[in-house]
Design brief:
Length: 331
């Protein structure tokens, strides 16, 4: 027995940064960003807004859409790389805000693959007979992590949260393929700020060059390496999942891909041999919101009526780790 998604919700901050707005921080222009990424604008938190607050708001909307009371939740998982909390975990904060007192709560970090890993984890718990109903959230406040002087990264990312309620269902179908390659970790990395403090009580910090310090305390990325990794491996993992399930591309109604870059998505469409109509994009509006990108897209499509009951969907994510995964679901 597995679970089905019975409600979705999302939240993005109101403040919008256009490509032209970014000129105040870095030497860039609208045409370059649109051509190389497809991104037109991104939503970013203002003073006083928090990643954990966005997670709560998206969760409330998902619970309402599902018609589920917070007390019915057995588990809450938050996927994030950008929590504004180290302790307690963000999921416990969400639990307290929702009064979901029967839920076990934990966070996980698989970067942009994270929503799938939260989904897969819940399916495994349901299948083991340990839980019936869970809330999963992908929430990111990446505007607080990027270096606004680095044009190679700051143009890409945005803030937001997406959530889904999953409930056990005899009709539910689930399968997945997952991979990680720690050897590629340096392509997309960031050291926790406090990690710098543990080296001989700040001596090592003062010895760091400015470049080192920037790379360690902000997101550092080799964009071309991540690009190549994604265009190569996402089609392979989708085909791997189709092969494992003994189904074909024609059997899939929708592919929900991590919203990182229009050119990556176009590359995947070509290599998988599918059509653009089956691979919706919203990165134009939100940029790359890491583990929030797939649940925000899912929620938008549900609200627009573009997803119907029974639709066969493959979600596929890729990102830091390096990690990548593809998951099959029937809506
Ligand atoms: O969730 C996963 C997260 N990461 C990703 O998805 C990243 C994947 N990678 C990418 O999306 C692309 O590699 C980027 C969008 C980051 C960069 O695009 P690119 O086509 O790989 O550009 P590039 O790094 O090769 O740079 C080309 C040129 C360089 O100038 P020169 O050396 O040719 O004179 C850059 O300095 O473009 C320049 N450039 C920019 N110009 C204007 C780099 N960033 C910018 C910018 N505005 N923001």
């Amino acid at each position: 027995m597995y679970g089905k998604i019975i409600g979705t919700g999302s939240y993005v901050p109101q403040k919008v940064l256009t490509n032209d707005d970014l000129k105040q921080y870095v030497d860039t222009d609208d045409e370059w960003i649109r051509e190389r990424t497809g991104i037109v604008c991104r939503h970013v938190m203002e003073d006083g807004e928090t990643m954990k607050g966005m997670a709560v708001e998206a969760s409330k909307r998902a619970l309402q859409a599902a018609g589920v009371e917070a007390g019915e939740l057995d588990m809450i998982i938050v996927s994030t790389v950008s929590s504004d909390l180290i302790l307690p975990n963000t999921a416990c904060y969400v639990q307290e805000q929702l009064n979901a007192k029967n839920a076990m709560c934990f966070d996980l970090n698989t970067a942009c693959t994270g929503f799938m890993m939260a989904y897969n984890t819940v399916q495994t718990y349901i299948n083991a007979g340990l839980i019936d109903t869970a809330l999963i959230i992908g929430a990111e406040g990446l505007s607080r992590l990027v270096d606004w002087k680095d044009r190679g990264t700051c143009i890409l990312f945005g803030d937001g949260a997406g959530a889904a309620v999953i409930h056990k269902d005899e009709q539910a179908v689930f399968d997945t393929v997952m991979h990680a390659n720690g050897k590629g970790g340096s392509a997309l990395s960031m050291e926790a700020g406090y990690a710098l403090r543990d080296r001989a009580i700040d001596k090592a910090v003062s010895a760091l060059s400015d470049k080192d310090r920037h790379l360690r305390t902000h997101i550092g990325m080799d964009g071309q390496e991540v690009f190549r990794f994604a265009v190569k491996n996402v089609p392979i993992i989708i085909k791997e999942l189709l092969g494992k399930m003994e189904i074909k591309e024609q059997d899939i109604d929708l592919f929900l891909l991590h919203q990182a870059n229009k050119r990556i998505i176009e590359g995947v469409i070509k290599r998988v041999g599918t059509t653009a109509e089956k691979v919706p994009m919203n990165l134009m509006e939100y940029g790359n919101t890491s583990s929030a990108s797939i649940p925000i897209l899912l929620d938008e499509l549900v609200k627009q009526g573009s997803i119907s009951e029974g639709d066969r969907i493959i979600m596929a994510g890729f990102g830091a780790g390096l990690t990548w995964a593809a998951t099959y679901l029937e809506y």
